[in-house]
Amino acid sequence: MAAESGRQFWKRSAKLPGSIQPVYGAQHPPLDPRLTKNFIKDRSKANALPMKSKKASSFHEFARNTSDAWDIGDDEDEDFSSSSSSLQTLNSKVAKATAAQVLENHSKLRAKPERTQSALSDMPTNCKVIKSSSEHLLLAEEACVRTPLQKQQSLPLRPVIPLVARISDQNASGAPPMTVREKTRLEKFRQLLSSHNTDLDELRKCSWPGVPREVRPVTWRLLSVSTRSCDAGIGGGNIHIDIPRTNPLIPLFQQPLVQEIFERILFIWAIRHPASGYVQGINDLVTPFFVVFLSEYVEEDVENFDVTNLSQDVLRSIEADSFWCMSKLLDGIQDNYTFAQPGIQKKVKALEELVSRIDEQVHNHFRKYEVEYLQFAFRWMNNLLMRELPLRCTIRLWDTYQSEPEGFSHFHLYVCAAFLIKWRKEILDEEDFQGLLMLLQNLPTIHWGNEEIGLLLAEAYRLKYMFADAPNHYRR
Prior knowledge:
The protein is mainly α. Among the domains are: 239-331, Helicase, Ruva Protein, domain 3; 342-474, Cyclin A, domain 1 (Orthogonal Bundle), CATH 1.10.472.80. It has 22 helices and no strands. α10 packs across α13, α12 packs across α14 (312-331) and α13 packs across α14. It starts with 32 loop residues before the first helix and ends in a 9-residue tail after the last helix. The model is unreliable at 1-28, 30-37, 43-57, 66-90, 112-166, 171-175 and 227-237 (pLDDT under 50). This is TBC1 domain family member 22B.
């Protein structure tokens, strides 16, 4: 599968361990079904080789010998030519008979509106209307990818939920929009926030299981204002290159005005933090704050909202809130982005030790096929799982992170451990290095919502309760 140098869209750098690889995750799934088809075809070829030739000695060797997801359109002309030649051999009589059958079926459906109406009434109540072209592409991808990946059939079957649409609607499991319990919680939040002196400890307790959308902007501000960075210095980055890559499937983030806001936020943060400057991945951390503070002024779904409809004062307020809250977040994890990123190195090592204690079988499975934790968990730490989860899930996850002491720096470790063990069955089913890396870099979380995040956080809290105060328990 070695890709020609002329077809490579970027150059990999192996100077630092754990270099970021631009592979797809939950936010950036491959949109071409041929990728999956070619992957399965190559898997079958690889299985036919002797065991010695299948074994990869390192992750960089695997990366060099694997074509990138950006190369999925290289064989487009070949596929089109082969398909067009087959179309020419189609029998005209068969085509006419098929067309006549389609017309007949259509007339029968129009003659029985009652049956159609009853069929529609049987559809799940949480099916969403597709509004954007990005949703259409994702639904088309789901239809093509679900069939060949038989190992994912063990997951619960649910209606297709767009990855990027309904950012404000996190309830992907089909629960009612507002239950009695949720109304009670919302009222409690409003009482806390309307008091003359807000009890931040009580606000954190209420925020742990999730913050209602109506009060999330002001809650996030209050949970982020304890300290603010005041460093001075100079710095810079390749910021304008990364910004267009931020959530490329969401139209909101492709608007020039939004990209200008992101560029100012990242540039100002970089020159105020010369110890790290701008590092690829920090751009992702702005998006949840921007969406939450934008939702304060937008009642409809923000995915396709045109920000030019807002006044300059409103846009400046959203920009300022996003900047200060992102700065507060990065204050606690800045060592993740200094030279050689030592914070991430330590967290990945701690994750390896923790997994070896809580699930020795998974840990030994990685060792058997020479999979290093840094090869997949670097991105989990660098982007706080944002590339692995839909944005709606990240917003819910950050409700808890902001209410948990050292949530982004400490509690995130246990969330990553719980997230890894969540896929233990799929991990143990893979029996080669390439299959494991492809799985761990493209985990099927497109259907996730509040229910799945709640279970993930509960398991993470259990792990923290067992190991946080006894760090020696990491090791045998």
